[in-house]
Amino acid sequence: MKSFTHSLFTTPALLSAMALVAITSVPVFGQEKAVNLDQLLNLLEQGKNQQTAQNVERENAFIQRESEQDKLLKQAEGNRQAVLNHSQVLEGKFEANEIKLADKTEVLTKRLGSLKELFGVLQQVAGDTKSKFQTSVVSAQFQGRDIFLEQMAKDMGASSKLASIADIEKVWFEMQREMTEQGKVAKFQTDVIVAGGDKVNKNVVRVGAFNLVSDGKYLTFNPSTNTVAELLRQPNDRYLDSALAIQHNQNDLVSFAVDPTGGSILGLLVQAPTLSERIEQGAVVGYIILAVGALGLLLALERIISLTLVNAKVKRQLKQSEAKSDNPLGRVLQVKDQYPHADTETLELKLSEAILAEVPKLGRNMTFIKIISVVAPLMGLLGTVTGMINTFQAITLFGTGDPKLMAGGISQALVTTVLGLVVAIPMTLLYAYLSTRHKNVVYILQEQASGIMAERSEKQSAPLKQAA
User: Fold this and answer.
1) Distance between CA atoms of residues 422 and 420, nearest Å
2) Burial class of residue 238, CB neighbours in 10 A (0-12, 13-18, 19+)
3) pLDDT tens for residues 404-441?
4) How far is Cα 136 from Cα 163, in angstroms, rounded to an integer?
5) For the CA atoms of the chain, what is the radius of gyration?
6) Which of 28, 224, 244, 355 has its CA 20 to 30 A from that of 207?
């Protein structure tokens, strides 16, 4: 047992722990080193005694300050009571002021009389005029007019401030200026946001309360930011020409397209699709119809030129006695010379053969033009059906809540129908014209062939008559 205790107390970890406790508990003895366990125990006892003495000293000091704390507590309670008393006094004054304010308000209401109704109308007029000024293009030249009216309407609504004569006169002045400026063509300088996003100070022409133009372009006024900007898409050239003319005009009268809505109609006008955008709405079917129409137009032009030249040569051949081979009539007339001794029936067959050889050349590509005139409206009908299928698919997926989702299919249906008719109608007229010219040449050939046969028949029947 003795050996076990000795080994326990000589363990290095235990000695280290006890030394750490001695150092942290008794810092005053931190400089002294314990040589053995007895000295360490002595040091701990001295530290404990000293700690006890310090605690007793702290308790005595706290007891001595207790009276001072009682004094501070009484002083705080006294301040609290004073504040409560002051609060009660203020509440009483507040209630008295409320009663006095109600009495004064009643007196003010009675003394206002008809003026109160007048101020109500003035408040309504100020609010309505403010809204009108915010959307008027006149505000592009006279900015900030709506701020005064908005503040005035708020003050009149809160009844905290009555309108003065100067305020009423200012409302009248602004309304009168708005009416006066609506009848003027005014020029002024302001910052304009151009297409690239930059602000450029430009000379702007305001046409009443209808339009703003600069450098031959139409402008738009944004009331939320009080900025003037160029329209991203401008209307047709005829409107731009009038905008340029009015800007450079001095005192003469010029034609100008006026937007009575102050920009709404102009905004819708520039959003209207162009011809190329209309064609794009026809999608693939629309492009195919146009390609077929272009092919038919080329074939028709070739036929018109060819038949015009042939007709001129045939007419020239009618005036000549010698048959030439550069025209159909000449080639038919040469048959007579090729068979001078043939009988009437043989010559008729030879002439018919020559005419039949010329007819396909004269009517070349006529069949394609006729087919295109028939196929074009059918392709337009195909585009109509395809567009309606797309429309019904959009309705199935998204419902009928948003008409814009159905607009694509409907546009395709209508545009392809129009394109089919645009191609079919001129192709039909061209085919009728070419067919008439083609038949005229054939009639001339048949007429001349009949004349040749009649002449040959007379020659063959003349000897028989003389013999008889």
Assistant:
1) 5
2) exposed
3) 777 778 888 999 999 999 999 999 999 999 999 999 99
4) 25
5) 55
6) 224
